[in-house]
């Protein structure tokens, strides 16, 4: 495995996290919440969920920074970081009804990039 970075093979774990994040976002910020006029961002998730979520996001970003040093996955990692930064900026400046849309698009882009990165690492074996 001299050409393929071992770190890229953690992608399936982060794909599972992305899917869980999308499911939780739909539950937390879903259409029912928007129709009820409730802003769940002011309430926040329970503390254990928030802690787990923040730790997983920090681990994912550390993983992406690690992948920036590996040549077969450098472009994927850079694009994933760019998508994350753009999504974060857009979510912070939009109305609640658009947050779920942006999260869904961002999640789809991130999932596609991770699957592509895993495939590139696999092919470089």
Gist?
This protein is mostly helical and 125 residues long.
Describe this entry's structure for a reader.
- The mean pLDDT is 85.
- The protein is elongated, with a radius of gyration of 16 Å.
- The protein is an all-alpha fold.
- The relative contact order is 0.19.
- The chain is built from 6 helices and no strands.
- It has one domain.
Q: What structural class is derived from the secondary structure elements?
A: mainly alpha
**Number of extended strands:** 0
How many helices?
6
**How many domains would you count in the coordinates?**
1
Query: What is the string of SSEs from the N terminus onward?
Result: HHHHHH
Helix content: over 70%
Q: Note poorly predicted spans.
A: none
Rounded to the nearest angstrom, the distance between the terminal CA atoms is 6 Å
Indicate the proportion of strand residues. under 5%
List the helices and strands and how they pair.
Blueprint: H1 11-29, H2 31-36, H3 40-43, H4 47-67, H5 74-92, H6 96-123
Helix pairs in contact: 1-6, 4-5, 5-6
Provide keyphrases for this structure.
elongated; 125 residues; 78% helix; mainly alpha
